[in-house]
Amino acid sequence: MKWMEMPKPELKKLFDGTLAAYEGRKAKGLKLNMSRGVPGREQLALSNDMLTILGEGDYLSPGGTDCRNYGGLEGIPEMKAIFADILDIRPDEVIVGGNSSLAMMFDNVAVNMSHGVRDGEPWMRQGRVKFLCPAPGYDRHFTICEYFHIEMIPVQMTGDGPDMDMVEALVSSDPMVKGMWCVPVFSNPEGCVYSDGTVLRMAALKPAADDFRLYWDNAYTIHNFSGPRPAIPNILRECEKAGNPNMPLIFASFSKVSMAGAGVAAMASSLSNCEYIRKRFFVQTIGPDKLNQLRHVRFFKNFEGVMAHMAKMADIVRPKFELVQNILQKELGGLGLAEWNVPAGGYFVSFNAPRGCAKRIVSLCKEAGVILTGAGATFPYGRDPWDRNIRIAPTYPSLDELREAMEIFCLSVRLAALETLM
Amino acid sequence: MKWMEMPKPELKKLFDGTLAAYEGRKAKGLKLNMSRGVPGREQLALSNDMLTILGEGDYLSPGGTDCRNYGGLEGIPEMKAIFADILDIRPDEVIVGGNSSLAMMFDNVAVNMSHGVRDGEPWMRQGRVKFLCPAPGYDRHFTICEYFHIEMIPVQMTGDGPDMDMVEALVSSDPMVKGMWCVPVFSNPEGCVYSDGTVLRMAALKPAADDFRLYWDNAYTIHNFSGPRPAIPNILRECEKAGNPNMPLIFASFSKVSMAGAGVAAMASSLSNCEYIRKRFFVQTIGPDKLNQLRHVRFFKNFEGVMAHMAKMADIVRPKFELVQNILQKELGGLGLAEWNVPAGGYFVSFNAPRGCAKRIVSLCKEAGVILTGAGATFPYGRDPWDRNIRIAPTYPSLDELREAMEIFCLSVRLAALETLM
């Protein structure tokens, strides 16, 4: 029976029972932080051999580079080749960076503020820059915009990706729209894979601003855990065909493939964009840590090695996502209270609570020892217009911890819903 | 006999002999790049054990941090402690970064352009920012200024550091002077150690701009190779005493201690500056590579370990600097042509050729297969007003290569001088 249709006295009885169950759980004093998409121990352990993969005197890349010394601003060729295969582009379209693709995104925005895009007018001198932000979306993208006082325009997500009618209308009409965040495969948090139509329309945008860029954060392209790796059109090639060769800036990272804090990040773009970036890198840095790239090259060997590794990763991650689905279904299914997605990859389950309940649920969970991502974090400025979206990040806890946490979560959802209904 | 006093026919004879010797060397077809301060093979080999220092399952820091995972924006405490001891400050005044202190300097300037210093007026909105640039100085500092269109004001170096009369006059009178580059110990390229008086006057500056900062690049503080480590006053403490607690931004790095491209960099400043930087780091990055910090902590253990390592480093570097001095003295001593410094540490010998000859010498060396740092690179905008300063970087070549290169260098100096005299 849907709770909306339930008579008050029954709701009251339900509330009392739920509250008692919740208080019981709370008394157990669980402490669990599920606020970020952090790999769990077993996932990290998959790459433990990387700790010892370099032998004595083992510092030359296959191509003969001394990875200990300075130089190699774009990374060693073998690491570029692996990224190129993952992104289905050419190695010379890749620039390998440090351990953080977030830092590479921040850096690109920072430099556009002071220098403009490819020596265009600096954004700082153009007035208030705007970015389109598919929402719900990745909070760290939004934080970068906030930091640089970039106005964020939320774009509704659909099952096919961002609402392209809205995107086309905004991008083609407003020259202050300079960028758009995209997580095209297994979007954060919804696990959405952009449809072919969405990608093709994205590539064919006719921006009013000639310095408009797609920030194509392909963080989860190899993170399928249920079913095959999604194939979406190649954004670099499609943008070329559509006459927008320099529009996409692609980002990728090994943070959720090898070691979260000691992975390797990269960006990819047109040869001509890469040339611009290289020039800046010469001023900016002594170059990335090539020894860590060598560790990755030795450990993964090649694209096939990466994919074999990700198959093992999927086996670890899958049961956690299944557990989340099972508990949500068991505890909340059929009550007409909430909706959630069933992702085939990525790192999150996007949960839509009854309107006006997300903050309350997150707070109830916190009181009972489970820290979730803050309600609203998945929206620009932390403002979820309906206060309903919650990002569930199942990877970090063990299965036992996750079960307990999800039961507390479901109790909190029921409690918050009942408070509203009564 | 000084060449200036030599009669023309003798000069002609000397020229013919020198040219023949130079052509003979050129015919040997040497290929040697001495353009940058790059550690040589033996230096890097000192840290080779770092490649294999982490054992199986060896990823927990002494304090229990899982160095594989996300988090730890300021670095692991044990790495902070080592930097604190090197810089003689407290660990909480240190923020550990990635592998490049240059990147940390660039980053600080970049953020000041868009955000100002500590939420002050962004430099981009204040008009043309100026930096004081002791000259000769480090070309990469100058390149950062050029990139951000920061006007560079050269300040003459003296034996005690930058000309402080000029520094005080400029800093106290011009609110657009926002920064000054300092390499206080074994300055690049002159190997100058700032005197106590210079450091104290620096700390007591009364800047017209409240967002003025000292960029205190302490790159060579433990790089003494002849004699004890220089003790200069502690800039952080002296600035506190003088009422300028937030003025210094200190940078340091292991690039020339462990692996050049796979070292660990850090910056240090007042607690209150560190707090600001931490807030930005949260937006900017997933955090530094803590596994590489762990490698450093395991390898060096502590400050004493670092110093013992640097003593071995000195033994490798010293003979190269001695060789340079011997050849310069033998080939050019007493001729009244050139001057050069005799550094007790650092990475360079600063050579002053006859005026108007530096470009010609670098070009003659290049023709004979020896690439030097470009003439002028040690001055802002690459403009050496006397075209005489050349930076010699002796560390990278082997002793045999270095001998050959220095002989070619001296022949080139003689040739260029004779061309001018005749």
What does this structure look like?
- Two copies of one chain form a homodimer.
- Chain A is an alpha/beta fold.
- In chain A, helix 1 runs antiparallel to helix 13 (399-421) and helix 12 crosses helix 13 (399-421).
- Chain A contains 13 helices and 13 strands.
- The first copy, chain A, folds into two domains: 3-44 and 307-421, Aspartate Aminotransferase, domain 1 (Alpha-Beta Complex); 61-301, Type I PLP-dependent aspartate aminotransferase-like (Major domain) (Aspartate Aminotransferase, domain 2, 3-Layer(aba) Sandwich), CATH 3.40.640.10.
- Helices cover 41% and strands 13% of the residues of chain A.
- Chain A starts with 7 loop residues before the first helix and ends with a helix.
Class based on secondary structure composition and strand pairing of chain A: alpha/beta
Identify the strand order in the major beta sheet of chain A.
2-9-8-7-6-3-4-5
| Helix-strand sequence of chain A | HEHHEHEHEEHEHEHEEHHHEEHEEH
Number of helices of chain A: 13
Radius of gyration of chain A: 23 Å
Low-confidence stretches of chain A: none
Oligomer: homodimer
CATH architecture of the largest domain in chain A: 3-Layer(aba) Sandwich
Number of strands of chain A: 13
Residues in β-strands, percent of chain A: 5-15%
Mean pLDDT of chain A: 97
CATH domain fold name of the largest domain in chain A: Aspartate Aminotransferase, domain 2
Question: Mind telling me the CATH class of the largest domain in chain A?
Answer: Alpha Beta
Sheet with most strands of chain A: 8 strands, mixed
Bin the helical content of chain A: 40-55%
For the largest interface in this structure, which chains are involved and how many residues does each contribute? A-B, 58 and 58 residues
Distance between the termini of chain A: 16 Å
